Amino acid sequence: MRVCVGHISAHCDKCGCQDFQPLFAESSNAHEMACFSCGVRTTRRALLMQIAEETVKRAQAFIELSKKARNQPRKH
Ligand SMILES: [Zn+2]
User: Fold this and answer.
1) How does pLDDT run across 36-67, given as a tens digit for each residue?
2) Confidence band (pLDDT; 50, 70, 90) for 75?
3) How far apart are CA 4 and CA 67, in angstroms?
4) CA 48 to ligand 1 centroid distance, Å
5) How remote is the CA of residue 31 from the centroid of ligand 1, in Å?
6) 70 and 62 in contact (C-beta within 8 Å)?
7) Sign of torsion over alpha carbons 21, 22, 24, 30
8) Residue 24 confidence class, pLDDT cut points 50, 70, 90
């Protein structure tokens, strides 16, 4: 399954795969997940944090771009 918010999906730090498999550990409610491709373990929370960071990065990049566009001298 993919963990995504809006247009952004979380990806594995190791291999970049965007598919994760939930692990149902009996004593854990941390929503552990494993990368479908390489099996590295993470949590749903960590993946959502990654998406949140990516969202902030994209927003900042967008702001920078619009600042640059505004600061460009106009052509006459
Ligand atoms: Zn992986």
Assistant:
1) 999 999 999 999 999 999 999 999 999 999 99
2) confident
3) 29
4) 16
5) 17
6) no
7) positive
8) confident
0.85 surpassed by pTM: no
Closest CA to 22 of 55, 52, 45: 45
User: How close is the Cα of 39 to the center of ligand 1, in Å?
Assistant: 6
Which amino acid does the sequence have at 7? H
Report domain extents, the chain: 4-71
Tell me if 5 sits within 8 A of 48, measured CB to CB.
yes
Q: How far is the centre of ligand 1, averaged over its atoms, from the C-alpha of 16 (Å)?
A: 6
Strands 8-9 and 4-5: antiparallel
Binning pLDDT at 50, 70 and 90, where does residue 73 land? confident
Tell me how far the alpha carbon of residue 11 lies from the centroid of ligand 1, in angstroms.
8
